[in-house]
Amino acid sequence: MSAASIRAQAEDLRRQIDYHNYRYYVLDDPEIPDSEYDRLMRELQALEAAHPELITPDSPTQRVGAQPLKEFAEVRHAIPMLSLGNAFSDEEMADFDERVRKLLNVEQIEYSAEPKLDGLAISLRYEKGVLVQGATRGDGHRGEDVTSNVRTIGAIPLRLLGEGWPAVLEVRGEIFMPKKGFEELNRRARKKGEKTFANPRNAAAGSLRQLDPKITATRPLSFYAYGWGELSVEKLGDSYSDAMAVIKEYGLPVSPELKVVQGLQGCLDYFDAMARKRDSLDYEIDGVVFKVNDLQQQERLGFVSRAPRWAIARKFPAQEALTVVKDVEFQVGRTGAVTPVARLDPVEVGGVTVRNATLHNMDEVKKKDVHIGDTVYVRRAGDVIPEIVRVLPERRPKTAQEVVLPKHCPVCGSDVIKPEGEAVARCTGGLYCPAQRKEAIKHFASRRAMDIEGLGDKLVEQLVEQELIHDPADLYSLTRQQLMGLERMGEKSAQNLLDALERSKETTLAHFLYALGIREVGEATSQTLAQQFGSLEALEKASEEELQETPDIGPIVAAHIAAFFHQPHNREVIDKLLQAGIHWPAVETPSEEELPLKGKTFVLTGSLSRPRSEIKVELQALGAKVTGSVSKNTDYVVAGEAAGSKLDKARDLGVTILDEDGLKILLASTA
Ligand code: IVH
After folding, report:
1. Residues 152, 156, 160, 162: what is their CA dihedral angle, to the nearest 10 degrees?
2. Which residues form a coiled coil (predicted)?
3. CA proximity to 377, closest of 340, 318, 317, 323
């Protein structure tokens, strides 16, 4: 292919990707599945990797890549970034409308209305259609240059779509973090014992003010435009709504809630509708912004100090309130997680009465230093469970009590353990605990566990809800009559299920161990355990220290295994299962010939066509060790698509690298 046609191909891919970004972020109407989008992106990446001279700064592959900064440079806003006046009641809205009408001397005003996003203001400067600068609001006159970070946000186009845009176009809007992304970010932080963000706004601000754009790139940020600054043309339209439609055509997302309404009544109705809709939006809003729609009228109204006279923010009632923690109780989730929940003096938060707030886990309780009797700030955001934001230590009574993790599960009485280094405490009564019943049985029946064909999640739920089974062992005493009494269960399917149950009795120790659903014990670990201990009896008797001597088993997993077998209830269920006839062939310690990969260490990296756990199990069965990081002791690196630093390291160290076909050949040669 000629250089020119390769360049044209790259450009074509970029146009396609830009267009699909627009469909996704601006129109909220993607034309192609994510996988197809990823494919286009990979194709462009491959082309650019082969021809680095063709990479352009506005290529969609160049969103991340800038080096970390020492500090942000200062940006002066040619046109200041203003703030907004507030209205906290319908009366204050009426005052605003009256003021505007008087100043303009008109009967009724046309307003544009849109949600007030709870994020942070940003200015995006496009020159000749290319994003050249992103700047925070700062004090309104001087902000910070956050261009490299802004470039990592998928919703912000690196170049404008279409043509005919002004040579200079400064778009202004809000960067925010969607609720789901925020929850996920905090969940990850909590799991790692790191600091969580108090709300999506703080999370968005903290993410945008990272000196390393690679960190910003991992944060789920989004953007809506709500105005403009410097323009090299006189205007984008006659009204705010027309101008925003133009901005949207250029490829910048505009709130889909933007509407034109007539007069004060139109504003009040819009506000009520948005208050009802608020919880169902996937981002946080703290009110509605109304703007006089006609731009000539806006100009006549002008500004007072730092805010325009032509706009107002009608705010929702506060989402935070003060109350007292009456008690802290512990709830057990379906995976056994034991979660502290604060019982509160009932308090109104944003129009809803709040009685309970989650404390997530004991680390959170310690970090926030919550005591029973404390006065606290509670926060309710949308439909998520209310949270305790912080304690007012100055209001702590002398009688305040420390929160202690119970030693026994409040639901089933089994031991509660919290392994060192884990944030979450768990009930160890996995097979027995009513709170965990459904999940335990679903897992037990699943394909990779006991593989009970035809026993799907819905059926397990019915069986548990009708109290036909209480633990997995009860499955094996189900009768045809009982099964036929269930929804959508005929004679034939009942018999099929009984047959499948019968077949499942013949299993392997590894499958059985996996089916028990011991925390952190996946397929690969089950297999290692089966091979190392050889029998269930030996494993049941093993101490934590002995367990830790097993390859790949660290202190946390060892603690979970020991705690599981320590519970009399779990042992009872296991006995019942064995009595029902579950059996497996004795595990023979394989001879040297049967372990052709003994002593070989593998690392799996990149995206492979099968789950890594599955390949790991296969390799381990042949005696190989599978580890997570590449070192000089690694014998093989199996690299899938988009393998990164591990592959580089393997190359540096001269480790043998296999693709999936290579692995197949190697496995075939051991057979
Ligand atoms: S218009 C001159 N529209 O609210 C008016 N602002 O309290 C400029 N905000 O700094 C702002 N959503 O960060 C406008 N739809 C919206 C908004 C919005 C959120 C923020 C913005 C501004 C602050 C003022």
Report:
1. 120
2. none
3. 323
Q: If DSSP codes are grouped into helix, strand and coil, which group holds residue 472?
A: helix
Whole-number Å distance, alpha carbon 346 to ligand 1 midpoint, is 33
Does the structure show a pLDDT above 90 at 323? yes
176: nearest Cα among 146, 205, 156 = 205
Q: Say what the pTM is.
A: 0.61
Residue 267 is assigned to a ligand binding site: no
Choice among 331-345, 370-384, 575-589 with the minimum mean pLDDT: 370-384
- Ligand 1 atom closest to Cα of residue 116: 12
Cα-flanking dihedrals φ and ψ of residue 604, to 5°? -105, 135
CATH 3.30.470.30 residue ranges of the chain are 85-315
- Alpha-carbon span 286 to 86, nearest angstrom: 11
Q: Is 499 annotated for ligand binding?
A: no
What superfamily does domain 601-669 belong to in CATH? BRCT domain (3.40.50.10190)
Per-residue pLDDT tens digits for 139-165:
899 999 999 999 999 999 999 999 899
Structure confidence by residue, pLDDT tens digits, 387-426: 898 899 999 999 999 999 999 999 899 999 998 878 899 9
Position 186: which residue type? N
Q: Looking at the domain 85-315, which fold is it?
A: D-amino Acid Aminotransferase; Chain A, domain 1 (3.30.470)
Task: Report the CATH superfamily, name and number, of domain 3-62.
Answer: Helix hairpin bin (1.10.287.610)
Q: Check the annotation: does 36 bind a ligand.
A: yes
Which among 83, 120, 208 is the best mutation to test ligand 1's pocket, defined by most ligand atoms within 8 Å of the CB?
Answer: 83
The CATH topology of domain 325-417 is OB fold (Dihydrolipoamide Acetyltransferase, E2P) (2.40.50)
**CA distance linking residue 588 with residue 578, whole number of Å:** 20
CATH no., domain 433-505: 1.10.150.20
Q: Quick one: pLDDT at residue 593?
A: 66
What is the residue-averaged pLDDT of the chain? Answer: 92
As a CATH number, domain 509-580 is 1.10.150.20
Q: Which ranges in the chain are annotated with CATH 1.10.287.610? A: 3-62
